[in-house]
Amino acid sequence: MGENRDNGTKGVFVREFARAVPWGIVVIITVLICFSFISYGGKKMIDYAQGNAANTIRQIVTDPVLVEGIKRNIKEGVEYTLTRTKTEIRNVLMDTELKQDVKEALEYTGNRK
Questions:
Q1: Within this chain, do residues 54 and 71 fall inside the same structural domain, yes or no?
Q2: Count of domains for the chain
Q3: Angle, alpha carbons 38-42-46 (nearest 5°)
Q4: What whole-number distance in Å separates Cα of residue 69 and Cα of residue 61?
Q5: How far is CA 40 from CA 27, 29, 48, 54, in A?
Q6: pLDDT tens for residues 30-69?
Q7: How far apart are CA 30 and CA 22, in angstroms?
Q8: How buried is 58 (Cβ within 10 angstroms: 0-12 exposed, 13-18 middle, 19+ buried)?
């Protein structure tokens, strides 16, 4: 009686394994097909994004209106910086308190030797 039970368990195991193998193969094939579509689509998507980015950058860099505006802004920025720096340096050099402090510092240094 124990032998029949073992044969029955083995038979059930073999029968269920035989049912599972085709489904496992179907799942593996489906996953491989999906992966190949995704990888092919991913490659196409990356190629499109790269080409589109290069084309957009090329259009922006060669746009004469934009380039002229950038040049003008840089020129105005440099001119403003130089003018502001010149004004600040004049204000510092014309400061009487600063002149007095420098004079005192030089006198102190001269007297110390």
A1: no
A2: 2
A3: 175
A4: 12
A5: 20, 16, 12, 21
A6: 999 888 888 777 788 888 888 888 888 888 888 888 888 8
A7: 12
A8: exposed
The residue behind tokens 């009487």 is 96
Do 24 and 68 fall into the same domain? no
Q: Write down the pTM of the prediction.
A: 0.39
Task: Specify whether 75 is located in the same domain as 22.
Answer: no
Measured distance CA(20)–CA(14) in Å, rounded: 10
Amino acid letter at 76? Answer: E
Measure the CA–CA gap between 3 and 5, rounded to whole angstroms.
5
| Furthest C-alpha separation in the chain | 122
Average pLDDT over residues 62-80: 91
**Which residue, chain included where needed, has tokens 């110390």?**
112
